[in-house]
């Protein structure tokens, strides 16, 4: 298995865990505005930095669907004649609130209490992980597809904590693999419906192997010890 295949579940666990920890905080952000969550809750780190083109939007929403009626009705985003999406001022306020809420929840989650203090790295490890993931995002522009290009570099508030920066960067990093996965199953001549119906077997394993092959190059910007450091550091976060 490639390094990309090995680290994928670790990245997913850390990022999804951080989002789960921040769920109540995120919902409180929307409650304060009297609104419902929309695409900005998933793509805040990219949308705060730049508009999302039609191609990027289609790629990023492949698996979730792209019904944007709620965003338009609530005044969170607007779309131009070319299909490019932009946050409104209201949307930017909400997206920033989501970013901070997830980061704050992650910081609490990643601060171990007794008796784990001596065994887990906690906040002290975050700045180094932020740096390593940042280097991956820079390298990914040579191989990433439209979704990744829309997400990185990420928007980071001035003075943002390491937890806010790491959660935002991990969120963007996952889109490099997302682009790789779409290219893999589309290259195999599959539709999304056919992919979802694939049983475990040679064809599904071939799609995953091709995804790893396409996702692997950005990790080559790190040397062997740095890749181990990244894998171990993320894996040790509570």
Explain how this protein is built.
The chain is mostly helical. The chain has one domain. Helices cover 63% and strands 3% of the residues. It has helices spanning 3-21, 23-33, 40-47, 54-60, 69-73, 89-109, 126-140, 146-151, 162-187, 192-197, 202-215, 224-235; strands at residues 77-79, 85-87. It has a two-stranded antiparallel ribbon. A hairpin with a 5-residue loop joins strand 1 and strand 2 (85-87). Helix 2 runs antiparallel to helix 6, helix 3 (40-47) crosses helix 6 (89-109) and helix 6 (89-109) crosses helix 9 (162-187). 39% of the residues are buried.
Tags for this entry?
238 residues, mainly alpha, two-stranded antiparallel sheet, 12 helices, globular
Compute the separation of the termini in Å.
Answer: 25 Å
Overall mean pLDDT score? Answer: 94
Point out poorly predicted stretches.
none
The structure class reads mainly alpha
Compact overview of the structure:
The protein is mainly α. Helix content is 63%, strand content 3%.
SSE topology sketch:
Layout: H1 3-21, H2 23-33, H3 40-47, H4 54-60, H5 69-73, E1 77-79, E2 85-87, H6 89-109, H7 126-140, H8 146-151, H9 162-187, H10 192-197, H11 202-215, H12 224-235
Antiparallel strand pairs: 1-2
